[in-house]
Amino acid sequence: MNPKRNIIIAxxxxxxxxxxTLAKHIAREIGYVYVDTGAMYRAVTxxxxxxxxxxxxxxxxxxxxxxxxxxxxxxxxxxxxGYAEIFLxxxxxxxxIRTMKVSNRVSQVAAVPEVRQKxxxxxxxxALKNGIVMDGRDIGTVVFPEAELKxxxxxxxxxxxxxxxxxxxxxxxxxxxxxVLENVMLRDHLDTTRSDSPLVxxxxxxxxxxxxxxxxxxxxxxxxxxxxxxxxx
Length: 233
Ligand code: DC
Fold this sequence. Notes:
Layout: E1 8-13, H1 19-30, E2 33-36, H2 37-50, H3 61-66, E3 73-78, E4 83-88, E5 91-92, H4 94-97, H5 100-110, H6 113-126, E6 132-136, H7 139-143, E7 149-154, H8 157-170, H9 177-193, E8 206-209, H10 215-232
Parallel strand pairs: 1-6, 1-7, 2-6, 7-8
Antiparallel strand pairs: 3-4, 4-5
Helix pairs in contact: 1-10, 2-5, 2-6, 5-9, 8-9
Bound molecules: 2'-deoxycytidine-5'-monophosphate.
């Protein structure tokens, strides 16, 4: 496929709907850059944990805000993996940001307007040169309201918890299904009710409910929309 110009593809939606997998596949298929914005919020959460600003009992929001200038995030493409990994202050943070500890705290950090402002600015700069597929919660509503194609991913809560549970087990994490389900429900609640940039479907987004679809079927469905958009662009 040879699009006349680069477009922005926003992939938003609930956690564990396969947003990253889908966004990564689309980017690879059409030669675009893939950006995982959830990884950015997770990396800031990891920073806050290392600095002792957040743990299971307290969150010192003011100290995090005061030290935000110390957070330097970058992505480096990993040829072997076929996508970019996130670096926090020069160190690969991928293996630290997917833990349950980070998952349990990230919504609190993502609700801080100063954190969002810093990350949104960086995200907007990333699309200046490249065709981009960006996944997150607010890409089609806040980061790129003008994105040419917006996909909004949903699936039932139980199905999403099952997927996350399997993924964690496959990665060797000892966890029970009930804890994962509770984390998914809590994050849905926090993500949809926060006052700054809550998770909401943009009016012009195409909703994809993949409760009954596997990875390949979801990809085929989404690529239909992508091709249609690229042909018109
Ligand atoms: O996609 P993920 O599960 O890795 O995202 C982690 C958290 O970050 C999620 O609970 C919501 C938040 N997030 C956000 O608020 N805005 C984004 N653009 C991406 C993620």
